[in-house]
Write a structure and sequence with these properties.
27% of the residues lie in helices and 29% in strands. The protein has 161 residues and is α/β, with parallel strands linked by helices.
Amino acid sequence: GPYGVASLEDEVEGSSVVYYVPDGGGPWPVVVWAHGFARGPANHATAAARAASWGFLVVTPALPSLTDHAANGDAIASTFLPAARATFAAEVSDQAAFVGHSAGGLASLVAASLAEVDVLVELDGVDVSDLGVDAAPLVTEPVVQEVGEPSYCNSDGNGAA
């Protein structure tokens, strides 16, 4: 993209966070980008930096729970998005998005059912105990969902539902 990007490491309520900040002053929409199961923010560093180069302030948190996807969704909505807005106050706009991969997609879906954002992007999101199926009707923003073929990590393609 047309903007240079700085990465800033921080800690928010005990979770490490990396912010990818475009240069040029904003105000930028905020994107909270959630990693998948057994992964971490570093797995999305290249994509997050690329999104930031197009004028988004991208937040990549280490989700607080390995298996409590509802708690992760709550943290995305009520901790990581507000922290980014508070930390970069004048540099961010009111626009926001949640992006999540795999279990991070499920957590982002839950987050979108709890907070108002402008778009939800799920990258091969999964579902556990119908948490996603139950959260989906509460999501009112546009959703972009990419569903991969069933594989080792998501053997039955359960995020499609």
